[in-house]
Amino acid sequence: EDLAGAGVDDSRRVPRVSTPAGVGCTGKRPQSHAQKRFSRTVLPFIFWSFVGLIYDIFYLGSVSPDLELANYVSMILNASIPTTSVFWFFLPLFAIYLALPLLIYVDDEKKKKVFGYLIFAYLILNLIRNLFGFFGISFPVDLQLIVMGGWLIYPILGWYLSNIELRDIQQRGIYLIGIISFLFTWVGTVISSYKAGSIVNVGSNLLDLPYIIISSSVFLFFKQRFARKSQSERGSKLLVSLSGLTFGVYLIHRFVLNFLVKLLDIQPATWYWPIIGFFLVSGISFLLVALIKRIPLLCRLV
């Protein structure tokens, strides 16, 4: 049962990759993101966190109604409300927006060299730290790339992958390494969970080398596919329509998920629910966001 649970839990790695891959997109046009994205994310974060708090108190009953105001404010600011716990993504995102001048004011002619060096140094240190951990060696805590703190690796990597030309063989090589990294984390989780008798996630840190490689592969894959589709007018319109809904889907999908689980008395740990639930929740969420987009004022919150 624990082994099956490990397999189900690890199947959720695929949608999780969308988070760092999405953060990587902030590096494609850093100046426009610095000026617009901050204001377009803070208000939805606060609004839907408050809705999530009310939702969890009165519908799910997962949050006590007897807490002090400071506790509720802390839960919102730290994205610790159960339904909106996925909003943890906003916190490193806001930190990235504050650091975006690093991307904006580096001279365009020097960006490739500077960012290429930062990416290389970060990945090497990441690899060495993991190897040291594997052999039981303590890695110096202070030996880190300070200018690449937090999630800054992803927008820098996103800019770099968006502005370099890769040959087909290089792209396939990145895809292959990404697949190997995914299999490594998946198989490692299953084996480790089997030995421990409980779920043990291997390589689950989104800032560790396996996830950086997987996210880079996903980012590059969709970059190439979207570039081809955007060449046709029909494909371009479809991409614009979908891209305008994805942020809203991210904001409300947990509301839909928890509502269905409670309404239909679903056991989320079953092997089939992550597959069926993904399409069901996504479909309903897309429809709801498309509807909200048509409502004045509310359209600004998705």
TrEMBL record:
Lineage: Bacteria, Bacillati, Actinomycetota, Coriobacteriia, Coriobacteriales
Primary localization: membrane
GO cellular component: plasma membrane
InterPro entries on file: Acyl_transf_3_dom
Record field: transmembrane: 42-61, 81-105, 117-137, 143-161, 173-194, 209-226, 238-259, 271-292
UniProt topology in membrane: Multi-pass membrane protein
Alphabetized UniProt keyword annotations: Acyltransferase, Cell membrane, Membrane, Transferase, Transmembrane, Transmembrane helix
Positions of the Acyltransferase domain: 35-288
Region (Disordered): 1-30
Subcellular location field: Cell membrane
GO-annotated molecular function: O-acetyltransferase activity
Record Pfam families: Acyl_transf_3
Protein name per UniProt: Acyltransferase
Gene Ontology terms: biological process: enterobacterial common antigen biosynthetic process
Family classification: Belongs to the acyltransferase 3 family.
